[in-house]
Amino acid sequence: MAATVALIDYGSGNLRSAEKALSRAGGNVVLTCDPDVAGNADRIVLPGVGAFGDCMQGLSSIPGMIAALQESVLRRGVPFLGICVGMQLLASVGREFGDHAGLDWIAGEVDRLSPADPLLKVPHMGWNELAVARPHPLFANIAPGAHAYFVHSYAVKPRDPAHVLASSDYGGAFAAAVGRDNIVGTQFHPEKSQAVGLTLLGNFLAWRP
């Protein structure tokens, strides 16, 4: 039986594309803003598009949602995937339009990209190569040098370098994927990354941390 995947709807995110991609990868996807539904799911995916503070406010405005996520993910070890700003919310603080507290599940900050090459524009948009830092089930069967699709102006800087699962380069290295224990996040959009993205989502659905 396919794993039940709670795709959290908190007013931000590329929900339909993520829902379709997760379904194609084999998940039984439930799009929800109900903390009880999220709390009973086999896996949880938090998408996100927009500013860090707005996304965190949207998530916080759903009564009981953060508590349900903390119970499932931090205490019961339910596998969790954050996508784009959904990954950034894992950090301690986001510095977009002022400082905003994050979930603090992966200690660190989210800061603006500052490419060394002044010709590189921010936001960073388009395909970029992934450099996997160490073996992880999330990147199983993804060839070295694979490319994924990014749209972002900010990036996570984990306090512990071991929490960087993969990096990419845009006038300087930045974290393309982070993780610890049963928690992973991708700065890129797997739902827009074609075969590489579907492979990664399938890996997430099969992952037994």
Give your account of this protein's structure.
This protein is of the alpha/beta class. The chain has a single domain, classed as Class I glutamine amidotransferase (GATase) domain (Rossmann fold, 3-Layer(aba) Sandwich). 25% of the residues lie in helices and 31% in strands. The chain has an 8-stranded mixed sheet with strand order 2-1-3-4-14-13-12-9. β5 and β6 form a beta hairpin. The radius of gyration is 16 Å and the shape is globular.
Order of helices and strands: EHEHEHHEHEEEEEEEEEEH
| CATH topology descriptor | Rossmann fold
Estimate the helix proportion, in percent: 10-25%
Unreliable segments (pLDDT under 50, ≥5 consecutive)? Answer: none
User: How many DSSP-defined strands?
Assistant: 14
In order across it, which strands form the biggest sheet? 2-1-3-4-14-13-12-9
The CATH class label is Alpha Beta
DSSP helical segment count? 6
Distance between the termini: 19 Å
Q: Mean pLDDT, rounded to whole units? A: 95
The total domain count is 1
Q: What general form does the structure show?
A: globular
